[in-house]
Write a structure and sequence with these properties.
This protein is an alpha/beta fold. It folds into two domains: 95 residues, Winged helix-like DNA-binding domain superfamily/Winged helix DNA-binding domain (Arc Repressor Mutant, subunit A); 242 residues, Vaccinia Virus protein VP39 (Rossmann fold), CATH 3.40.50. It is built from 16 helices and nine strands. The chain has a seven-stranded mixed sheet with strand order 5-4-3-6-7-9-8, sandwiched between helices. A two-stranded antiparallel ribbon has the order 1-2. Helix 6 packs antiparallel against helix 9 and helix 9 packs parallel to helix 11. It is globular. The relative contact order is 0.08. It comes from Kineococcus glutinatus. InterPro entries: Methyltranfer_dom (IPR025714), SAM-binding_MTase (IPR053173), SAM-dependent_MTases_sf (IPR029063), WH-like_DNA-bd_sf (IPR036388), WH_DNA-bd_sf (IPR036390), WHD_Rv2258c (IPR048711).
């Protein structure tokens, strides 16, 4: 007599299921995301502890040498060095047969050194994981904001966030912005006026303001921001650069401070999407800029319309929006809650409500992940 096991009951179809990736594809995607997250945090560690900079300055090191030179703990240094070599960011240059790894020496290639230690390089992305780390420290607050409303302000995200933003923008503003402006005649002619007054709304740590002043030595630049630590850092940089007589930094809301009029040009670099009330600020900018002046919004170069799946730029911008920009914007009462992914029709709507007739995309290409918009009277 034989018996047979009963056939397993079929798994019921998911209610409302729609076509999409398989379970294996989703699992692989989640695994890859976690792997990338771990590696980003390891870059954060190497950046914050000075390990990359030490390897670049002093050459290949064993774990003991790196720990001794940087005042850190050898066992952690060894684990980090091994992880970085496995990830392909560091190179093992000696001691490959060392069983316990204590005598292995690790070094940085020229390309890795540029991307991870050179603050003047356009490829310098070591500051980027700082933004991820800033958001990670606030995940409980973010979850609460998602449940009940409100947000997490820029000030609450702390120094990692503000330093990440400043250090990522620094090389682009100092080295790429002057050429971009000179290559756009409508902007260059105004900025090159003798005694031109230039307004920099949402100036942050001031690198955009300093770049404008350096590129146009006859101009006087006024930077405005609501973040006190950033304004303090900007003032120190202006003094260090010898530009304190031509660059002024003010702490406050641009909706009020920009209304003193008489500016030849106004810029808003990567900040309109963060503003609780962008219409009020754009209206203040309109009133502050002379009729024969120019006003420019520089914001994320997102797609013209929502498309899913999206490309890597869209994906990273939604990441910034979920964990940084949208929570920051919604931390202010009555915020419109724009988020990082501000497409042109949204900016057009804000501009028109502020009294501008429209916006035009300016011919500035390959400028980080940013797009230049001219506000039209």
């Amino acid at each position: 007599m034989t018996t047979t096991e009963p056939a397993p009951a079929p798994v019921p179809a998911q209610a409302g299921a729609v076509p999409g990736p398989s379970a294996d594809e989703v699992a692989e995607r989640v695994f890859g995301s976690v792997l990338a997250g771990f590696e980003a945090f390891a870059v954060y560690v190497g950046d914050r502890l000075g390990w990359y900079r030490d390897l670049h300055a002093h050459g290949p090191a064993t774990p003991a040498e790196l720990a001794g030179r940087t005042g850190t703990q050898e066992r952690y240094a060894r684990e980090w060095l091994e992880q970085q070599a496995v990830a392909g960011l560091l190179t093992v240059v000696a001691g490959t047969g060392d069983a316990d790894g204590a005598r292995r020496r690790y070094g940085l290639s020229a390309g890795a050194a540029e991307a991870l230690t050179d603050p003047d390089s356009l490829a310098h992305l070591a500051p980027l994981p700082r933004m991820l780390a800033a958001a990670a420290t606030r995940l409980p607050q973010l979850l609460e904001a998602y449940r009940s409303g409100g947000g997490v302000s820029w000030d609450e995200l702390g120094d990692d966030a503000r330093e990440s933003q400043a250090d990522l923008n620094r090389p682009w503003f100092l080295h790429a912005l002057p050429g971009a402006l000179r290559g756009t005649p409508a902007l260059h002619e105004v900025l090159d006026r003798p005694g031109a007054r230039v307004l920099d709304v949402g100036c942050g740590a001031g690198w955009s303001s300093l770049a404008l002043a350096r590129a146009y030595p006859r101009a006087h630049v006024v930077g405005i921001d609501v973040d006190a630590p950033s304004v303090g850092a900007a003032r120190r940089e202006a003094v260090a650069a010898g530009l304190g007589d031509r660059v002024e930094f003010r702490l406050g809301d641009a909706a009020a401070l920009a209304a003193d009029g008489g500016y030849d040009a106004a810029f808003a670099f990567e900040c309109v999407h963060d503003m609780p009330d962008p219409v009020a600020v754009l209206d203040a900018v309109r009133r502050a800029v002379r009729p024969d002046g120019v006003a420019v919004v520089v914001d994320e170069a997102v797609a013209e319309e929502f498309t899913a799946p999206g490309d890597e730029v869209e994906r990273v911008m939604y990441g910034f929006s979920l964990f940084v920009c949208l929570p920051d914007g919604l931390s202010a009462p009555g915020s419109v809650g724009t988020g990082t992914v501000m497409r042109r029709p949204v900016l057009q709507r804000y501009a028109q409500r502020a009294g501008w007739s429209g916006v035009d995309v300016l011919p500035v290409e390959d400028f980080a992940f940013l797009r230049f918009y001219g506000l039209r009277r």
